[in-house]
UniProtKB/TrEMBL annotation:
It is a multi-pass membrane protein. It is found in: Cell outer membrane. Residues 100-205 form the TonB-dependent receptor plug domain. It comes from Echinicola pacifica. Belongs to the TonB-dependent receptor family. It comes from the Bacteria. The lineage of its organism: Bacteria, Pseudomonadati, Bacteroidota, Cytophagia, Cytophagales. GO terms for cellular component: cell outer membrane. This is SusC/RagA family TonB-linked outer membrane protein.
Length: 1000
């Protein structure tokens, strides 16, 4: 080895942009080695190189990569020029990419920096408030996924979830992905963007790219993790013992007042108020407490001239808010992604992601029971000697109908899901004609194995003994996709043309096996889990045993598709875009469908006549497209002959009659969408505007209708629903100096959901008979439907002058303290003709806003979001229809009608238990609007620091608050309820975390 190679040389310098501002984080690599460093916050760098004739490679996103020979120098200051091509942001689209400025579609992309700010098991939660037109409904249960709706609801059968495409593979959910493994999430919102996915794209498409290494990148080790606590927020305050007893006395119920006396005899009198039992249980505080959440990931990334790679693993853990029960979620991930140039004309690669999770599902009945449990019984009752294994209290011992104690389902139930998921792909890309024609082939696969075990312990509540039981279910699914497609790119003069054409094959297979056994011997306890197997069951439930192929009629689904895309750009001014996909499958009798789209754009700012200095970019665009939804159950029946009998001359005569009712769902649902958009950038690209107006009509909806004469229900593809709205995003960012920069932005979207057709009927009922929901022509899907409350009768005179007939008043026994329902048609009666639409669970207006700044090593960001115009059915209060010897919430207890002028919102205590006031009305349906501080993060970065003479890794420390404040008027834990019906919804906590990111 020569002395030149053996010696070590130190080099340092500063890297700035063309305006002279320092660029932190520039990657500097000694060419041909893995030796390198990054610039600090002031753009400075310093490291040792192997030779004095080394070549340094300077690279940073948004700037041109430069190679600079050292030539014996010890100091190199460099100005990196802007990479003009990278200023044209590249956006992922189906089977390829496009420059953002060339898009004619509505696509929003969220990068990894924003995704990882949200501590969550599912990365889609990070989109809440960030993407106009996308509604995210949170779920607080450990491991649970949020509800995601893109531009409303487009199916009567409830399948409104978008299609997820992860590195080319199709998914219904991305609960297997760790947020740190995701490079970007792109939401394809309109038909123009989504139509290339055909029959699965009706509800929008979410494209996800996982992280990969970079070519010519020095190897790096990255640790990213956080630890935090989930804190219950907006805990619903229930009536305490004093409020409850007051309420009971006001009902006038002799039986309930006796229950209070029974409780006094059993538990003693309160020393503070002798009229109360010496018990005052706050059940919510008993069943829940703060819980931990954490995430840790480690990755190895890098690349040479011909190969790039990224390998990593992660661990996520989330404990549940419920006490006593196992209620947590753990997930481990291993991933690998590699691409290599085998030849100049051939690149091959693949990625692999393995996810293993264990989820203990907390018994949801605990939330239900905690709301209704009376506060005058304790958690444990030493006198309940017949109860085992624990002497829990039982409200039946003092006269109530049910045990009410929420600790029975907590202590004596264990529900576990073990989930293993393997997915990935292998691919090859050939440059058939350099820089013009390429061919890509990819094989994508996924394997899901889910095992559920639900164990109920044998126990007695002191009155009733319940046997032990075990239910086990194993489900497996294997899907695969083979994609083959050509991409041709060419430009001549002012013309730029990109053509994609290909073929895709997909198969989906699933099967389910389940069984239920009772009388487990020995009895299950927390200390003998080795016996929690069906082989120890004494009896088997015949109806609880099954072996099926999942939810589809075919044991294996096959899809064959042909697709193409043409994107044309003339002189950076006129844009044309079109896609076509022909899908075929064996799920429906209709085997084939065609899905097409066309879009156009006009970049006005490129025209010679356009001379507005403040506007750097202005584009108008419009598109039309057609999509499909095959996420409905096929059903093909025929008219049948039924045997019947009648008596003729006292002789039984057997005959047959035609039953013409049958289900006929032989095709998928079809969506046709029109979209009109504008994109603009102002003031040297510091201010950007993106706006879209869309009209989305979904036809051939599967609907359950009741034909005339025959009252049986039958499903037909006859429904039609429309979603339309406006989406606007506005963002401003500015660099004040090399030390200080800031940004501020916001978005909002409107949504009008309307039922356009039900195949003949004017309406279609949903929900339950007591809490009716109805889809009515011209109204939103599944609107709440009932009586309008005008107030509470304050005196007899108001009842007499109400407009109701005297006979009607007498029949219903109306008294002061009862609701006054609006007589919509003025006939003096309150009946079905007076019911009206009371609102929809779909918000009419959603919004989000974010702001942040960076000062030297400090970074601050905050995100707010909210929804307006949706309703929530407070089903908890509605349960009084079925049982009235339970507790009520404190807000209701404090504001009951107690005489003239005391309340015009709530009835009297006695009125609560009266059938008249229990009619479904606006009393039960509340405003779900809310404002929330969604995310606040403070970060501090350390670059090129030394400790004890040794160089420290680049570090970033973060403090994050997720959902620290939510403001709303709804009487519940949280105004986020997926279907608008709040009966036993898992609370959504605030989350506070401390995080650390290290790069070696």
């Amino acid at each position: 080895m020569s002395s030149a190679l053996a010696q070590s040389n130190s080099v340092s310098g500063t890297v700035v942009d063309p305006s002279g501002l320092a660029i932190p984080g520039v990657n500097i690599l000694e060419k041909g080695t893995s030796n390198g460093t990054v610039t600090d916050l002031d753009g400075n760098y310093s490291f040792e190189v192997g030779t004095d004739d080394a070549i340094l490679i300077f690279s940073f996103i948004g700037f041109e990569t430069q190679e600079v020979p050292l030539n014996g120098r010890s100091k190199i200051d460099l100005t990196l020029g802007e990479d003009i091509s990278s200023l044209d942001e590249v956006v992922v689209v189906g089977y390829g990419t496009q420059k953002e400025k060339d898009l004619t579609s509505a696509i929003t992309t969220i990068k990894t920096d924003e995704i990882v700010k949200t501590p969550t098991p599912n990365a889609m939660q990070s989109l809440q408030g960030r993407v106009a037109g996308v509604q995210i409904v949170s779920n607080g249960a450990p491991g649970a996924s949020p509800t995601v709706r893109v531009r409303g609801v487009g199916s009567f059968e409830g399948n409104a979830a978008p299609l997820y495409v992860v590195d080319g593979m199709f998914f219904d959910n991305i609960d297997f992905l760790n947020s740190n493994d995701i490079a970007s999430i792109s939401v394809l919102k309109d038909a123009s963007a989504s139509a290339i996915y055909g029959v699965r794209a009706s509800n929008g498409v979410v494209l996800i790219e996982t992280k990969s290494g970079k070519y010519e990148q020095s190897p790096e080790i990255v640790y990213d993790g956080y630890y935090g606590v989930q804190v219950p927020q907006n805990v619903l305050r229930m009536a305490n013992a004093q409020q409850f007893v007051q309420y009971v006395n006001e009902t006038g119920s002799t039986a309930d007042m006796q229950f209070v006396q029974n409780a006094i005899q059993r538990y003693g009198r309160s020393r503070v108020d002798p009229s109360l039992p010496d018990v005052n249980t706050d059940w919510y505080s008993e069943v829940m407490s703060p819980a931990a959440i954490q995430n840790h990931s480690l990755s190895f990334n890098g690349g040479s001239e011909k190969t790039r790679y990224s390998i990593g693993g992660s661990f996520f853990s989330q404990e549940g808010l419920l006490n006593e029960a196992r209620n947590d979620y753990k997930r481990g991930n291993i991933r690998a992604k590699i691409d290599t140039d085998i030849r100049e004309w051939l690149t091959v690669g693949g990625n692999f992601n393995f996810s293993a999770s264990q989820q203990y599902v907390g018994e949801s009945a605990a939330w239900f029971n905690s709301y209704f449990a009376v506060p005058i019984i304790p958690v444990y009752d030493a006198e309940n000697t017949n109860a085992f294994p624990e002497r829990l209290s039982n409200a039946q011992n003092v006269g109530y109908r049910n045990s009410q104690n929420p600790f029975y389902p907590l202590l004596y139930n264990d529900n576990r899901n073990n989930v293993a998921k393997v997915n990935g792909n292998i691919h090859a890309e050939l440059d058939l004609i350099p820089n013009k024609l390429s061919f890509r082939t990819a094989y994508n696969y996924r394997l899901d194995v889910i095992t559920n075990r639900n164990v109920n312990f044998r126990y007695s509540n002191g009155v009733t003994e319940l046997p032990s039981s075990i239910r086990k279910q194993s489900a497996a699914a294997f899907d695969q996709i083979v994609d083959n497609y050509f991409t041709y790119k060419d430009n001549w003069g002012d013309h730029l043309l990109t053509v994609t054409a290909g073929q895709s094959y997909r198969s989906e297979y699933s099967e389910v096996l389940f069984a239920t056994g009772t009388g487990i011997n020995p009895d299950p306890t927390w200390n003998n889990q080795q016996y929690w197997y069906l082989s120890n069951a004494e009896n088997y439930d015949v109806n609880g045993i099954g072996d099926s192929n999942g939810s589809t009629l075919n044991s294996k689904l096959h899809y064959l598709s042909f697709f193409g895309r043409v994107a044309y750009n003339y002189d950076e001014r006129y844009l044309l875009y079109g896609t076509f996909r022909r899908d075929g499958n064996n799920k429906f009798q209709q085997k084939w469908g065609n899905f097409a789209t066309i879009g156009a754009g006009w970049v006005i700012s490129e025209e010679d006549f356009f001379d507005v200095p403040a506007i750097g970019f202005l584009k108008l665009r419009a598109s039309w497209g057609q999509l499909g939804n095959d996420g409905i159950t096929p059903s093909v029946g025929v008219p049948t002959l039924e045997e019947t009998s009648t008596a003729i001359n006292d002789v039984r005569v057997i005959g047959r009659r035609l039953n013409p009712t049958y289900d006929l769902i032989d095709q998928w649902e079809t969506t046709v969408e029109k979209n009109f958009g504008i994109n603009a950038k102002f003031f040297n690209n510091q201010l950007s505007l993106d706006a879209d107006y869309f009209i989305r009509d979904t036809k051939n909806l599967a609907v359950s209708i009741i034909p005339p004469v025959f009252r049986a229900t039958e499903r037909r593809s006859v429904g039609q629903i429309r979603n339309q709205g406006l989406e606007v995003s506005l963002n401003w960012q500015k660099d004040i100096s090399k030390d200080f920069s800031y940004y501020i932005g916001g978005n909002f979207s409107t949504l009008k959901n309307q039922v356009l057709s039900l195949g003949g009927p004017e309406s279609l009922d949903g929900g339950s008979a007591e809490f009716r929901q109805r889809s009515i022509l011209g109204q939103p899907f599944q609107s709440f439907f009932g009586y309008e409350v005008e107030g509470v009768f304050q005196n007899e005179a108001e009842i007499t002058n109400s407009g109701y007939t005297n006979e009607f008043i007498s029949e219903n026994g109306l008294v002061p303290g009862d609701f006054k329902f609006k007589d919509q048609n003025g006939d003096g009666l309150i009946n079905d003709a007076d019911r009206v639409v009371m609102g929809s669970f779909l918000p009419e207006f959603t919004y989000g806003a974010n702001l942040g700044f960076k000062y030297k090593a400090f970074e601050f960001s905050t995100l707010i979001q909210g929804q307006v115009g949706h309703k929530i059915l407070n089903r908890k209060r509605g349960e009084i229809i079925f049982t009235n010897d339970t507790n009520i919430d404190a807000e209701l207890a404090d504001n009951l009608w107690r005489g003239e002028g005391t309340s015009d919102k709530y009835p009297s205590a006695a009125g609560l238990r009266k059938g008249w006031n229990q009619n479904f009305s606006t009393y039960f349906v509340e405003d779900g609007s809310y404002f929330r501080i969604q995310n606040v993060q403070l970060a501090y970065s350390l670059l090129n620091k030394q400790l004890f003479g040794q160089k420290m890794p680049a570090a970033r420390i973060t403090f994050t608050a997720e959902r620290p404040l939510t403001v709303f008027s709804y009487n519940g834990f949280n105004p986020e309820v997926a279907n608008g019906i709040d009966r036993q919804t898992y609370p959504i906590p605030a989350v506070y975390t401390v995080g650390l990111n290290l790069k070696f």
